[in-house]
């Protein structure tokens, strides 16, 4: 768990000690006091080292002009909690960009509320790089393609055919024959070839003939014929014709 580095700047030794002790007693797992500042000259040098996360700064340390300059300069880099006896002065500092303010004398409950607000802000900054990386990873992830099965209604039964099991599809009027990788005989299914092509294109099927679809991954060989067509050999040994009309479906292989 990350500990956040704290600088406490006040002309009052009592204030510096009080804030430091409250942090150590109630939030020692979250914060570590790395500097106690007693004059305005050291505030900027202590807080611009790149290792400071939080600045508690007391209004008694600075003139109004220096206060405005320091808060405006530092508020974009670190989280500032403003300490004051004057609520109007504290409200002015809040408008300059401090994350919260504490008005003397403040109680434990008010201090806890301030620190919880501070931690919420600091932890969101720490978590941001991880959230950004997760978002980028999600963008580069390949979406899992939804593979809807083919539902075949037979006489007295309903078969659920995984598209991965289909090697090729042949037209048979208002039906199609589904040729599967693990079955010798095709499955007759009441659907047109055009409808099947619409369903199976996203799964790697192409039309190779006016009466046939084939899964591209199941092709093992293409051999030209004398009439300009091609003879397709599938991995299971089946032979199909690739008509010249559908030659474009094999773009990247034949061209």
TrEMBL record:
The keyword Phosphoprotein applies. SUPFAM superfamilies: CheY-like (SSF52172). Pfam families: LytTR (PF04397). GO terms for molecular function: DNA binding; phosphorelay response regulator activity. The keyword Phosphoprotein applies. The modification 4-aspartylphosphate is found at residue 58. It comes from the Bacteria. PROSITE patterns: HTH_LYTTR, RESPONSE_REGULATORY. This is Two component transcriptional regulator, LytTR family. It comes from Pseudoalteromonas denitrificans DSM 6059.
């Amino acid at each position: 768990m990350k500990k956040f580095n704290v600088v406490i700047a006040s002309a009052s030794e009592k204030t510096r000690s009080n804030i430091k002790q409250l942090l150590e007693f109630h939030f020692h797992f979250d914060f570590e006091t790395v500097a106690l500042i007693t004059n305005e000259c050291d505030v900027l040098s202590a807080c611009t080292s790149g290792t400071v996360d939080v600045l508690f700064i007391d209004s008694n340390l600075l003139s109004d002009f220096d206060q405005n300059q320091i808060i405006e300069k530092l508020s974009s880099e670190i989280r500032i909690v403003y300490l004051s006896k004057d609520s109007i002065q504290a409200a002015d500092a809040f408008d300059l960009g401090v994350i919260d303010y504490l008005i003397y004398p403040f109680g434990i409950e008010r201090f806890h509320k301030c620190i919880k607000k501070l931690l919420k802000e600091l932890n969101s900054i720490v978590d941001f790089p991880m959230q950004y990386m997760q978002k980028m990873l999600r963008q580069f992830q390949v979406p899992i393609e939804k593979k809807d099965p083919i539902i075949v209604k037979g006489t007295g039964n309903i078969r659920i055919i995984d598209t991965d099991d289909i090697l090729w599809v042949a037209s048979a009027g208002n039906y199609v024959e589904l040729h599967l990788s693990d079955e010798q005989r095709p499955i007759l299914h009441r659907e047109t070839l055009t409808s099947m092509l619409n369903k199976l294109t996203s799964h790697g099927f192409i039309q190779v003939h006016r009466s046939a679809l084939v899964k591209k991954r199941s092709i093992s060989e293409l051999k030209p014929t004398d009439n300009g067509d091609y003879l397709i050999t599938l991995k299971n040994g089946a032979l199909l014709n690739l008509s010249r009309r559908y030659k474009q479906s094999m773009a990247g292989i034949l061209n």
